[in-house]
Design brief:
heterodimer; A: about 240 residues; alpha+beta; Serine Threonine Protein Phosphatase 5, Tetratricopeptide repeat; SH3 type barrels; 3 domains; five-stranded antiparallel sheet; two-stranded antiparallel ribbon; 8 helices; 7 strands; B: about 625 residues; Immunoglobulin-like; 4 domains; seven-stranded mixed sheet; 11 helices; rod-shaped
C-alpha cells in the first residue's frame, strides 16, 4: 500500500507535468491510467481540469463529481464543477425538491459515508456513556449534563446513521449520471419510435430510476423520460 | 627680402585659391536614353571649368558620324553685391546606332589644370527602326490627298496616337497594390497640349492612391513594330477591396493636335510657313479586368489587415522605473504594402498602468510598388503601483505577397521593474492622508482553478473498513448497548440508591406525616399507648428528617434546633419541635395519661402544619 502510494505520486506528478506543458489530451490519458490503478480525489480533480481545457464539459463534470464523492469538501473541485456547470446548455431547475430536502441533501453531501458512520458510532457511544453517568452519578449537575449530552448525541447519531445510509444507497445504486452525448432526445417510451419529449445536452446531471435493456428511465428536474444508457455515464 | 617673398606667395596662393575653388568641377555626359537604329543622335560632354585634352571613349557600339564640336559659354552676374559666374564648355559628338539593344558609353576623361576628371557613363537603349509594313508617320503624311479632311483624318488616326492602359499585374491578392498607368503613344503627329477634359472611371472595388508626377516627359518607345513618343498621363495605385474579377472601365483623355492644313489657295509661302489648325481628339484608354484572389484562409489571430512586406522594430524607454514616471514603447512598422490600412497594434498594459492613446506618426511615400514608408507608434503609460510587470509580446500578422503566406512579427516581451517613486508623496506629506483608495480585487476573466500539484491531500476510495449495513457495522452499536445494559444490571442497586430519594422524601414528607398522624389518631382511640407514641415520634422525626434532608440516625434535638435556626425558623417553633421530639421519645418508655396523649397529638399536628407553611 505504501509502495503503491509512492508510485501513484510519481505518476501524478508526471501527468501534472504534461498538463502544465499544455498537452491536455495526454495529461487526461495519464490521469485516467492512474484512476484505473487507484481511484483518488486528486487525480479525478486534475482529470476534470484536463478535460475542461479540452472543452469536454461532460467528462470534466463527471470527473469533478467523482472527485467530490471521494473528497466532498474539496473547495477547488466544487468551484470548478460550478464553473463547468455554468457552461452547459441545459438549465435544470429542480422545483420538486422541497427546500428542507435540499438542505438535508447539502448537509449529507458535506461528508463521506465513512465519516457519517464514524460520527454515528461515536455519538452512540456518547449516548450510552451519558446515560450510564446519569444513572450512576450522585452529583446533581453531572447527572443533568450527562442527560442532555446523551439526548443530543442520540439525535446526532440517528441522523448521521441516516445520512450514511442515504450516501450508501446513492453510491451503490449509482443513480446519478451525467449526459455525455452532445444532444440527446428523451423519449416517452424505451424504444426508437417513442414520442420525443424533450432534448438534453451534454453535461446535464440526471437521476436514473429504472433500466430496461439498453434504455433507462431518467428524471431531470420535473421531467421524466427514457433515453439510451450509452448516452450517459453514471457518476 | 624673405618676408616680402612670403607675402607675395601668400597673395598668389589666395588668388589662385579663389579662382580654383570658386566652383566644384562638374563633368557630365549626356545622351538620350532611347534612340532608334539608323537615326543620328548627339552625345555631349559638358564641364563647368576651363578644361583641355578631352579623351572620349571608343564608340564601339555606335557609328561615329561627327564631332567633337566645341562650344563654350560664360556668364557673370552680380546679385546683391555678390559675384556669381558660370562657365560651360561643351563637346558634342554625333553618333548613330547600328544595332538594337542596350549599350553603355564608357566615361570620358578630361584635364582641368593638372587634375584629371572622369565623366559619368551613359546607358542608351537602342530601339529597332520602324517596321516598314506599318504605315509610318512619314508615309502617312506623304500619302495625304489634297483634301484637308483626309489629311487630318489620317494624321490623327488611332494608329498614330492612342492611349494604353497598363497595369502592373492582372492577378493579385486582396489588398495587394497594382500600378495602373495611362500612357499616351504618338508618332508623326504634333501634340500641342492635353486638355483637362479627362474622364477617369470610378475604380469601384479599389482603394485608390494617386502617384504624384511632375511634368510630363516624353520618351521614345518601340511598340508594335513602331517607335512612338510616349508620355505617362496618369498613374495610380489600386488596392482591391474584395475578391473576384473587378473590371476597370475605360478612361477618356483629350489631346489637341496641330495639323498642317493644305489650303486650296496654294502659295509659295505655304510650304515655308504652312498653316496649322488645332484638332481636338478624344483618346480612349481601354478597360481592364483584374482577377483578385481572396487572401488564403487561416488568418492568424493578430492579423493586422496588412498585405505586402513589413518589418517591425520596437524599443522601450526603460525597464527600471519609478511609480508615476512615464514609460514609452515605440513600435516602427516599416515596409511596402497597404500601409494606410494597417491597424495600430495594441499593447496590453498590465493592471496598475495608466495607458494613454498611442501617438501614430505616418511617413508614407507612394511609389510604383505601393505605399512604402514607416508607421511610428508611440505608446505612453504611467505605472501607478510598484511591482514587477511583464508586457507581453505584441504579435502583428500580415500577408506576405512575395511568399504568398501569412507572417507574424513579434516584439520582444518586456519585463518592467517598478519601484516606489521617492517624490510620490512629498507634496502631500504636509497633509496627513487618512484615506486610502481601497480597491476591490478586480476579476477580469474567469477560468477553472489550477490542478492540484500537491498530492498530500489525496483521498483514495475506502476499500477496507466498515461497510454500511453490514453485521460488523450494526455490532458497533449493539455491543456497547449490551455492555451498557449489563452495567446497569450490575449497578442497579446503587442506581436505585442514587435515584433522587431525598427529593422524593421531601415532597412526600407531609403526606407521610399526615398518614402517620392518622394512624396515631386511630391508635389513640384504641388506647394502644406504646404504638401511639411510636407513631407520633416517627411522624415527627421522619418529617423533619425528610424536610431537612438529615438521615434519621443523625437526628438529635440539638441538630434539629441548629438546622431550623439556620433556616430562620422562629425560636418558638424550634422549642415546639424539640419538645415534640423529646416528649414522644420520653413517653415511649414511660407512657403517661390519655389527656397528655391528646395534647401531644395536637402539638405534633400543629408543628407539622406550621413547618409546612414555613416552606423549608
Amino acid at each position: 500500500m505504501k509502495l503503491l502510494l509512492v508510485i501513484l505520486v510519481t505518476l501524478l506528478s508526471e501527468a501534472n507535468q504534461l498538463y502544465s506543458d499544455g498537452s491536455y489530451a495526454e495529461a487526461a490519458k495519464a490521469y485516467e491510467e492512474i484512476i484505473a490503478e487507484q481511484p483518488n480525489s486528486e487525480a479525478y480533480y486534475n482529470l476534470g481540469n484536463a478535460y475542461f481545457k479540452q472543452d469536454e464539459l461532460a467528462q470534466a463534470i463527471l470527473a469533478y463529481e467523482r472527485c467530490l464523492r471521494l473528497d466532498p469538501r474539496n473547495k477547488d473541485a466544487k468551484y470548478n464543477l460550478a464553473f463547468a456547470q455554468s457552461r452547459i446548455i441545459d438549465n435544470v431547475e429542480d422545483n420538486q425538491a422541497f427546500f428542507i430536502k435540499s438542505w438535508l441533501q447539502a448537509i449529507r453531501n458535506t461528508l463521506r459515508e465513512k465519516t457519517w458512520m464514524n460520527i454515528s458510532i461515536i455519538t452512540f457511544l456518547l449516548v450510552l456513556i451519558g446515560f450510564l453517568l446519569f444513572a450512576l452519578s450522585k452529583e446533581q449537575w453531572l447527572r443533568k449534563t450527562a442527560f442532555y449530552v446523551a439526548l443530543v448525541s442520540l439525535i446526532i447519531s440517528i441522523s448521521s446513521c441516516a445520512n450514511a445510509g442515504s450516501l450508501h444507497r446513492r453510491d451503490n445504486l449509482r443513480q446519478e449520471a451525467i449526459i455525455t452525448q452532445g444532444i440527446v432526445n428523451v423519449k416517452a417510451s424505451p424504444d426508437r419510435s417513442g414520442t420525443e419529449l424533450f432534448t438534453l445536452h451534454e453535461g446535464t446531471k440526471v437521476t436514473i430510476h429504472e433500466t430496461l435493456g439498453d434504455w433507462c428511465n431518467i428524471h431531470v428536474g420535473n421531467n421524466v423520460g427514457w433515453m439510451k444508457i450509452s448516452s450517459l455515464e453514471r457518476i | 627680402m624673405t618676408k616680402l617673398r612670403y607675402i607675395l606667395i601668400t597673395l598668389f596662393a589666395l588668388v589662385i585659391g579663389i579662382s580654383l575653388h570658386s566652383e566644384e568641377v562638374e563633368f557630365r555626359a549626356q545622351a538620350p536614353s532611347q534612340v532608334v537604329v539608323g537615326k543620328p543622335f548627339q552625345l555631349t560632354y559638358s564641364i563647368n571649368q576651363r578644361a583641355k585634352d578631352l579623351q572620349a571613349p571608343e564608340f564601339t557600339d555606335f557609328d561615329y558620324l561627327a564631332g567633337p564640336y566645341t562650344s563654350q559659354s560664360s556668364s557673370t552676374s552680380f546679385v546683391n553685391g555678390k559675384r556669381t559666374s558660370s562657365f560651360q564648355l561643351t563637346y558634342t559628338y554625333t553618333l548613330m546606332a547600328t544595332k538594337e539593344g542596350s549599350f553603355t558609353i564608357q566615361p570620358a576623361k578630361i584635364s582641368v589644370g593638372s587634375d584629371r576628371y572622369t565623366s559619368n557613363g551613359v546607358r542608351i537603349t537602342v530601339l529597332p527602326a520602324d517596321n516598314p509594313q506599318q504605315p509610318s508617320s512619314v508615309a502617312g503624311q506623304q500619302a495625304t490627298s489634297n483634301t484637308q479632311t483626309a489629311s487630318t483624318a489620317s494624321s490623327t488616326s488611332s494608329e498614330n496616337i492612342f492611349v494604353r492602359t497598363i497595369v502592373s499585374k492582372t492577378k493579385v491578392h486582396e489588398q495587394e497594390a497594382i500600378l495602373l498607368s495611362y500612357k499616351l503613344y504618338f508618332a508623326g503627329v504634333d501634340v500641342a497640349q492635353l486638355t483637362n477634359n479627362t474622364k477617369l472611371p470610378e475604380y469601384t472595388g479599389f482603394l485608390k492612391q494617386d502617384i504624384e508626377q511632375g511634368e510630363i516627359q516624353t520618351e521614345l518607345e518601340h511598340y508594335n513594330g513602331r517607335n512612338y513618343q510616349t508620355a505617362t498621363l496618369y498613374r495610380t495605385l489600386l488596392y482591391p477591396q474584395h475578391s473576384g474579377d473587378i473590371v476597370i472601365d475605360p478612361a477618356t483623355f483629350e489631346a489637341v493636335l496641330r495639323v498642317q492644313t493644305r489650303a486650296q489657295v496654294r502659295s509659295i509661302f505655304d510650304d515655308f510657313f504652312g498653316s496649322y489648325t488645332n484638332v481636338t481628339k478624344a483618346l480612349k484608354a481601354p478597360g481592364v479586368t483584374i482577377h483578385v484572389q481572396s487572401l488564403p484562409s487561416g488568418k492568424p489571430a493578430g492579423f493586422s489587415g496588412g498585405v505586402g512586406r513589413f518589418t517591425m522594430a520596437s524599443a522601450i524607454s526603460g525597464t527600471e522605473l519609478k511609480t508615476n514616471e512615464a514609460v514609452t514603447i515605440k513600435i516602427d512598422i516599416q515596409g511596402t504594402g497597404n500601409m494606410k490600412l494597417l491597424k495600430t497594434p495594441t499593447v496590453d498594459w498590465p493592471e496598475g498602468f495608466e495607458a494613454y492613446d498611442p501617438k501614430v506618426n505616418n511617413n508614407f511615400k507612394t511609389t510604383t510598388n505601393g505605399v512604402s514608408g514607416k508607421k511610428e507608434i508611440e505608446y505612453l503609460a504611467i505605472p501607478r503601483a510598484s511591482g514587477d510587470y511583464v508586457i507581453p509580446a505584441i504579435a502583428y500578422s500580415y500577408f506576405d505577397t512575395q511568399d504568398n503566406q501569412y507572417k507574424t512579427l513579434r516584439t520582444p516581451e518586456y519585463t518592467l521593474h517598478v519601484i516606489k517613486g521617492s517624490g510620490d508623496s512629498d507634496a502631500t506629506q504636509a497633509v496627513v492622508q487618512n484615506f486610502v483608495n481601497k480597491e476591490d480585487v478586480q476579476q477580469f476573466g474567469s477560468d477553472i482553478r489550477y490542478i492540484h500539484t500537491n498530492t498530500d491531500k489525496t483521498r483514495t476510495k475506502a476499500e477496507s473498513g466498515l461497510v454500511f449495513g453490514s453485521l460488523t457495522y450494526w455490532m458497533c452499536y449493539l455491543i456497547p448497548l449490551l455492555l451498557a445494559i449489563v452495567l446497569l444490571i450490575v449497578f442497579h442497586k446503587k442506581i436505585r440508591e442514587n435515584a433522587d430519594l431525598t427529593r422524593v422524601r421531601y415532597k412526600k414528607a407531609n403526606k407521610v406525616a399526615q398518614k402517620r398522624l392518622k394512624q396515631a389518631k386511630k391508635l389513640l382511640s384504641e388506647g394502644n399507648k406504646t404504638a401511639f407514641y411510636e407513631e407520633i415520634e416517627r411522624a415527627a422525626v421522619s418529617y423533619l428528617s425528610d424536610r431537612l434532608s438529615i438521615p434519621t440516625a443523625d437526628l438529635s434535638k440539638d441538630k434539629i434546633a441548629e438546622i431550623l435556626r439556620s433556616k430562620n425558623i422562629s425560636e418558638e417553633l424550634i422549642q415546639q419541635a424539640t419538645e415534640v421530639v423529646s416528649t414522644a421519645e420520653f413517653a415511649r418508655y414511660a407512657p403517661s395519661a390519655d389527656s397528655q396523649m391528646q395534647t401531644l397529638y395536637d402539638m405534633t399536628t400543629e408543628l407539622i402544619n406550621q413547618l409546612e407553611n414555613q416552606n423549608l
